[in-house]
Amino acid sequence: MEKPEQYFNAGIILVDLNAWRSHQVSESVKNFLKSNWKKVLFWDQDGLNAVLYKNWLPLDISWNTITCTVHPKRMPDPHIIHYATGFKPWFYKSLDPYQAQYLKYLRLSPWRDYQFPDKNLWVWTYRMILLHTPEKILLIVFKFTWRWRCFISVCARKIALIKISRKHP
Hints:
Blueprint: H1 17-22, H2 25-35, H3 43-51, E1 65-66, E2 81-82, H4 99-107, H5 121-131, H6 135-167
Parallel strand pairs: 1-2
Helix pairs in contact: 2-3
């Protein structure tokens, strides 16, 4: 791929189903994934990007707000909040900027009695430390740990692929 901005996040997509079916996009994605399974990291997303390369239009970011990339001060009214990172609002540990909004709508749903599964003294302490740490320090720590977690994820994927290829030569 030429530029990173030519890669779309497939978490929220709008599809012209007639065009999708007539161009056999599903079959093309499946064939791509079968042929490139050793290289693929984000299965459906990588397949869709490979097959639809330069044949898609972006949605406005308000329709696919990924919480770690857009702060509520910069986008006060997103239409769809996409929880694509580890910052899930259904965990007490999360400091997701839209957590209060998520909990507001959760209370209006049949799951209004939901209890955080991770709420304990350790997580409460962690949360209090993060809430009282200056944002600049948090950003530095986040950037370092994000790269480290990505590195570990890629290594784990490569190890898994090596194990699979040994079982199925």
